[in-house]
Amino acid sequence: MAPETVRRRRGEQLESALLAAGWDELVEAGYARLTMESVAVRARTSEAVLYRRWANKDELVLAAMRRHRDVNPIAAPDTGSLRGDLLAYLTATSEALAGFLAIAAAAAFSGLSFGDGATPGEVRDQIIGDRLLPRGAIYQRAQDRGEIDLAHLSAAVLELPFQLVRHDLLLDLAPPRPARIRSIVDEVFLPLVQSQVKDLTPSRERQPEPMPGDLFRSIRQAQRKRIEEWSRTRDLTFEQAMVLGYLERQPGVIQRDVAEMSYTTPANVSLLLKGLERRGLVERRTEGGRKRVSATPAGLGLVAGLDAVLAEADEMVFASLEPDERAGLEALVAKINAHLPGAVEGS
What we know:
By secondary structure, the chain is mostly helical. The chain is 63% helix and 4% strand. The longest helix is centred in the first third of the chain and has 28 residues, at 82-109.
């Protein structure tokens, strides 16, 4: 007889508890040792309750796997660039799915049946579903920033990086290495997207006059491109390099400070910091009841020379100006900055 339940559960609450118990039993005991009885004991109910919902343990295990997949979504990051978003999302998702797939593969080798005559694609969809397919937020933000034109990109192209990472996951049952993810993004996807957009861009004569915001955007993009080139030589993304540079100047800040500096959300900063922490480039310590972030010596070593690159990027952008023109521009920008919300005197 199963142990007495603490309180009666019904409907979705009961089914969620049963599936959570099924997943926990699968993880701890493995598919071969999992039984309807062992799940019932863990869920503190009877086998009859399970059999009213699932005809056998295969159906229960598959349902438990789908539930675990669905209740652990991965938010699309907002790093400020399409490249940064893709690198962060593909890395986080592949790391989250790798353990899940290893458990699923072990269950399959132990006898789990995915249904009579199920094709490999159907098996894949039952296990992963659409976890690695874009939700739209990443690409919509990229379009809003002017990086891509969704009207000129097919669904097959947009799905390409996700499908390649999914293929690697199913083949290796381990997260793709950072170099592999960068290769997918930098050498396959971005050149393809940029070439398609370039081929379909109207001729210069037909382009509208740029708005003032477009002018400043082109300056930022030119600066960013130079810094990204430098960052890649150190196996860093643009966002990672800028955060490490900030931590070099401001060691021991709290995570919220990093989020404000990078104009992104605390959740996305947490994801970025976790990646740096895994590489031993940052450390988080609790001081005075608050978690503080600092760059490690290894992290500081990677961003040595960043200030020089930032100065080089500025010089590249303003090289065509005469000294008096540059001085005039700096005075105008300072005047604008002085009237912006949150402006700091002398900045």
